[in-house]
Amino acid sequence: MRIEPIHPDPSQADKLPYSPSIYVQGAGDLLFISGCTAIPLYHSHPHVHEEHVLPDDIKLQTRLAMDDIKLSLDACNIGWENVVKVTKYLTDMREADDMHEVMAEYFGNWKPASTMVCINNLSSPGARVEIDITAVLPPK
Fold first, then answer.
1. Mean pLDDT over all residues of the chain?
2. Residue 59 — very low, low, confident or very high, per pLDDT cuts 50/70/90?
3. Which of 48, 74, 114, 135, by CA, is between 20 and 30 Å from 33?
């Protein structure tokens, strides 16, 4: 399996915290990870207020969401380099740089394709970021 970024102008690649596109060749299966916020992955439904008391800091919220995503990657025995698409939902676009800084701690030099959307509210009161991903797994 081969996964590689495609940059129409490679000399500009360092300017972006994502890749304009990702080429995947010879993949086996796809993994779609539902949107993760700073709330625990497993929480009560209907929601219990105490499970939804979130830190105000966008960096900590991003870290908690990324840790939840990692649980699913680990369950499939794959890493961040298998992530080909990320969708990020923010309630304040001014926090994008802080969110990207934390995400880079997880992805390292790997930059999957990405979409970012600014929205009014997320599923949990106080949630400021939600992240979902698509990853590819090697053929079995």
1. 91
2. very high
3. 48
CATH number of the domain that 55 lies in? 3.30.1330.40
The DSSP output letter for 19 is B
Cβ atoms within 10 Å, residue 35: 18
CA angle at residue 88 from 57 to 74, to 5 degrees?
90
36, part of any domain: yes
**Residue 82: C-alpha distances to residues 9, 15, 24, 45 (Å):** 23, 22, 10, 31
* Residue 96 is assigned to a structural domain of this protein: yes
Q: Is the pTM of this model over 0.85?
A: yes
DSSP 25-66: ES--EEEEEEEE-SS-SS--SS--GGGG---S-HHHHHHHHH
Query: Residue 13 is which amino acid?
Result: A
